[in-house]
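Dear colleague,

As promised, here are the two records you asked about, laid out in our usual form so they can be pasted straight into your sheet.

NAME FIELD: protein one
SEQUENCE, THEN STRUCTURE:
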Amino acid sequence: MASVNISEASPLLQAQARLATHVTEAAGIHPPRPEWRHNSVEALLLSHGRWFRPAPMPSDRPLGVEGLCFANAAQHAARFGLAYVEGYALASGVVGLPHAWCAHPDGTVEDPTWNTDGHAYLGIPFTELYLREQEQRGNINQLLFEQHLNGWDLLRDGVDGAIAANVGRPYTTASNG
């Protein structure tokens, strides 16, 4: 596969490359945990994450409260029948941030918190079944970033089709350069 010159790539590919670099560097700072499938959320995303295509919110959809992305996305996904996704997103002028958003089956983002500020999104879309199971266990919101509340299940055991929905484009190192 031919190498892509990032300076000549589209703005979306440039943003995805910056976000992939950020997540890869963050994954590298965590010590190994041989008994776990993944040593960090970032390593989990590099193995199971999916890319999502930024898009402005439809004008008839409400925006949530800034700073409450996990709650906003959970409520928005339930209200409009979209996938709930957690991962990292790249906003204007900043490094990748832990974030939650919603996605259509084709991978198009509906971000009820940032609307048009997201430039790249890498995350795990959770199945409705997994979300219901977590809610019954009392685990709501921040399924990736507060794993200490659920026994580190995703890092320890990994992600399968019962947990992650088939939404978005799979992350691979080949898809990023």
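NAME FIELD: protein two
SEQUENCE, THEN STRUCTURE:
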Amino acid sequence: MAIPWFFATLGLSAYTDEREIKRAYALRLREIDQAADPAAFARLRDAYEAARAWCDRADDLPAAAAPDDMPLPVSNVTLPTTETSVEKARRLLDGFCRQVEDNDALHLEHALNAAFADLRLMQIDAAAAFQALLVDRLVDGSMPRRDRVFRAAWAYFAWNDVNHVAPLGPQRHAWIDAVERQRRALLLSPAGQRVLALLEQAARDGALRPQESLRPAMADAAVRYPQLFELHVTSRIRETWAGRYGQKPPFSLRRAWKENWPLIFVAVALLAIFVTEPILELVHWVRHR
């Protein structure tokens, strides 16, 4: 019997199972440079999906279709429920989060590698699910030490490469891109390095205490770079800081005139009424002395 093209692409025989398909796909994926040869990657992915579909159809065939019409053995043993890709990714991510929360000296890239290694080799879908769930926890604030985990994940998963980020979905891709763009823009601003240092300190200490001279720059950063700001500072700290310093912008004569010109006009008019007459009397007295 001729071997289907998708099994040939993966280097498998026609008699294989889903586990072998995933392993073969992972091995072939290492041999392809996705950026340099996107066509080869697309063909490999198509072969992987076609092979899995073949296995799913084979699983649906009745037992009577077995070779040589031999009856299949009957077993009363209940097989354990297979863990899905997303469940396995979530379980490993939960373990990673506990490590991050319990150990301040943890080397984050090494911990990511330990959690991700099993998925990378055995579970293709789980590998993508692990990254997607990690981004979701960074966004919603449930990941401890979010700023440092983001930097470690950025380096480990090569999120600077669009080919690595695009499979996570457009919303996650947009958030990752926004955080990094805002970080670069902040560092190019006049007080950017000092503001970023304060944000990183706030992420460590759980409090935001900007110097008086930096409060305007910090308030501006909260508006201009919201994703970067929220990555470092919890909502509770943001609310406390806004309540304490948010209503104290630096003094501006133009803004003061714009906001209070009716009161200023009335004050000047009253001053003119009560001061003009005494001044005129004084001038008259000096002239006729």
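A couple of things worth noting about protein two: Residues 257-289 form one domain. The chain is about 70% helix and 0% strand.

Best,
R.
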